[in-house]
Amino acid sequence: MEVLREDGEEEEEEKKAFVMSDELEDLEEKETIVHLQIGLAHLNHTIFIICLCFSIDTSQLPASYKMNSAKEQMLLQLADNFHRQYAHLCPDREPLFLHPLNECGVEKFVSTTVRPTLQPYPELYNWDGCAQFVSDYLTMEPLPSPITPPSCLPSPTTTLKYQQGNCFGFSVVLCSLLIGAGYDAYCVNGYATREICMMDETREVCPLLKKSKEVRSPEKVKKYAVKPPRDLRSKFELQQAAKKEAEIEAAEEKKQKEEEDKLMESEKPKPDPLYGLRVHAWVLILSGKREVPESFFIDPFTANSYSTTDDCFLGIESVWNHKNYWVNMQDCWNGCKELTFDLGDPVRWEFMLLGTDKPLLLLPEEEEEDAHLMDTPKGFDMPASWVEPIHISRKEFETRCPQGKKVIQYKKAKLEKWAPYLNSNGLVKRLTHYEDLECTRVLEVKEWFKNREDMMSMRQVNKKTEVTTEYFSPGHVQGLKAHIYKTMESETERTMEFYSETRVDGLQKRVENAQEMMEYFEGRSDFLHYRHTTFGKRTKKAQTLVNSELNARPIVQIKEQFHRNPEKPADEDVAERIFMILEERIMLTYHCKDDYITASKKEFIKQKDVDNKGNKIIMTSDMCISYQVGSSEKNKKLLHLYEMMLKLMEAEKQSKHQVWESKTEVLEILKIREEEAAASKLTVSMYDTERNEKSKQQRETMERLMQEERQRQVEQDLDYLAPFLIQMGSTEKMSKWQALRLKEDCLNDFKHRLIDKANLIQARFEKETQELQKKQQWYQQNQLSMTLEDEDAYLTYCSDAMFRIRILEIRLNRHKEMAPQKYIELEEKLCKDPRLAEYLKFYV
């Protein structure tokens, strides 16, 4: 036995040794991977900086991007001194991210890279709008090394210009917009999970698919209620049945839980060898400003907000804004869950510059008195940002996504985004929901639209049930709000919802299928709120008719319900009216009177006005069956009942006509929807000068008229006598002879110019004619040896030459006709000139 025990102990020790060796091998593999990636980090940084310098055009950047001011150089010296002290006191910590290179290769302090700017768009005044814009507008680039911060941090303007950047570039842009909008925002340098750093949302549920939790209001317990009937069933049998049901439910829950555990295990990501080492940058918003109740994180890649205790964020090295830089001195062994974000606490957060707006902790009274005796040193103010103000044009704000499109892959879903007016049908967003993780079987498709002429804002297609739901904004021609259907064919199952306030009949909803149609109303003067119509089958004769009213489905019954009219007594106010058309009956049910549990009813039996012999039928008591609540009241006379029946028969005709109008309206809406779907026209706002052609043409016309007016004003300002007055010298006292000489010189000069112009046109005309003749002679000599290409070239040349000759001939003839008129106009203008008029008035 002792030998067996010794053998068992030896086997256990060998197993433990094997386990220890396996664990050591795993640790060694992880260490080698980490060391290899650390070794490649410097090479990646160098390659990244070289590629960045070659890809960015720095020639047009301001001087502040290419050099440091004296104050910035002093700040860099303070940062180096701060880093030396930090490295001495905390040798185990990673180097601080203080002054990386910018796009011009110049070291810049990270706080001066933040450029707070308020944008003129209302959507960018809230944090969620800013985060969504940055997430949509920029393209994510991974860090050169996943475990070290980048060596280069471009300015927000350059990041926005090229629409790409890493997590640090994203964070600086978002932080600049948030601070400009009034938030207490900070850039954070820390560590996060692989999914956050790599923008991997394939295991996240799409936010558009998350259902908001409905808060159910507790049911009110009635003080007075009717007691339920006595239960005569066997309690033992009920207990046994409940026990069996509980066992079945427990088994089903256990099975479902096992399936969920298997699914979770299959969906669980592989272990990350760099867990806790991956560097990431995000944005922190502290509570206080802009009525923010609680501090939270924003991931700039996805625009999602997270609690400061979320498991995705594993640690923080430092935070900064445009005023100061803080180093986290708290232990992050449990991630960010136990961190305190009181930046005024110098024990937990070591600040770099004095004069921060964060108050320090209150000191004890004795230390406070000693502190007052000491001279407080004057802090170094943060230099102004070297970055130009962030400018986002209207076109860039609307386009957002690079090339106008962006695709995001979620768990069992794919979200696609487009810029407005990029698609001809106005599509701006599409969410495709899948059944499986591989995204091969489509379950549902949702599409969002903008600027459509038919006012359709959303379309939802269920691929399993083949049901399509279309939603419309207010402004549709028929007041349509929603349309649920399987096919666009008439007399099939469909539901139409309307904006009742825009319709005369107050129709709110219409539900239709092949056998019936239900209509719901609100806000009507006749208090009608519901109409139910039952249809029968068409006869063979009716199917061959062309007239739509005669070819309509036969109506079997019309049921109408009314709200209470307070101006009428309850026993005279109809609550329900049923027209039984085939049975030729009309049934009325009135509203209940106070203190009564039953309502009055009447049933009218319709008969023809005349019998078979042609005798007029008189109203009899058998034609009306009534039940009147309250036996003491007397029955109404036959004349009154006869008049009531006539009114009801007229109401029946009106109801039948309204049903026919409803069916006609359905057909018209279907026709309009088919035309709108085929056209897919988009509307352009009158304020959108880039896309509105009419406004653009008006603006161009106005600009052209203004340009012509300015040109005309310049021509008027030119003095046509100035060259001749200079030749004459002093003209303060002009004689009559000088005025005549000035006139003659001006006219002679103008005459020579007209002659020179005519000679120039004539010379060009003769030159073109001679060249054409030479070409024709060449063609006559070489006609037999020419190829088809040479003949085509010759014909093309002749056509062009004839066109030029014709134009020159027209210009020459026109010049000959206009020259005498221009000469006479100039002579009249000289005689009317105020400087010559008094001398030339006798020579006109």
From TrEMBL:
<feature type="domain" description="CEP76/DRC7 peptidase-like">
    <location>
        <begin position="279"/>
        <end position="352"/>
    </location>
</feature>
<dbReference type="InterPro" id="IPR033551">
    <property type="entry name" value="DRC7/lobo"/>
</dbReference>
<keyword id="KW-0175">Coiled coil</keyword>
<dbReference type="GO" id="GO:0030317">
    <property type="term" value="P:flagellated sperm motility"/>
</dbReference>
<keyword id="KW-0966">Cell projection</keyword>
<feature type="domain" description="Dynein regulatory complex subunit 7 MORN">
    <location>
        <begin position="402"/>
        <end position="685"/>
    </location>
</feature>
<dbReference type="GO" id="GO:0007283">
    <property type="term" value="P:spermatogenesis"/>
</dbReference>
<dbReference type="InterPro" id="IPR056291">
    <property type="entry name" value="MORN_DRC7"/>
</dbReference>
<dbReference type="GO" id="GO:0030154">
    <property type="term" value="P:cell differentiation"/>
</dbReference>
<keyword id="KW-0969">Cilium</keyword>
<keyword id="KW-0206">Cytoskeleton</keyword>
<dbReference type="Pfam" id="PF24667">
    <property type="entry name" value="MORN_DRC7"/>
</dbReference>
<comment type="similarity">
    <text>Belongs to the DRC7 family.</text>
</comment>
<feature type="region of interest" description="Disordered">
    <location>
        <begin position="247"/>
        <end position="269"/>
    </location>
</feature>
<keyword id="KW-0963">Cytoplasm</keyword>
<dbReference type="InterPro" id="IPR056290">
    <property type="entry name" value="CEPT76/DRC7_peptidase-like_dom"/>
</dbReference>
<feature type="domain" description="Dynein regulatory complex subunit 7 C-terminal">
    <location>
        <begin position="732"/>
        <end position="839"/>
    </location>
</feature>
<dbReference type="Pfam" id="PF24656">
    <property type="entry name" value="CEPT76_peptidase"/>
</dbReference>
<protein>
    <recommendedName>
        <fullName>Dynein regulatory complex subunit 7</fullName>
    </recommendedName>
</protein>
<dbReference type="InterPro" id="IPR038765">
    <property type="entry name" value="Papain-like_cys_pep_sf"/>
</dbReference>
<keyword id="KW-0221">Differentiation</keyword>
<dbReference type="Pfam" id="PF24671">
    <property type="entry name" value="DRC7_C"/>
</dbReference>
<dbReference type="InterPro" id="IPR056292">
    <property type="entry name" value="DRC7_C"/>
</dbReference>
<keyword id="KW-0744">Spermatogenesis</keyword>
<keyword id="KW-0282">Flagellum</keyword>
<dbReference type="GO" id="GO:0031514">
    <property type="term" value="C:motile cilium"/>
</dbReference>
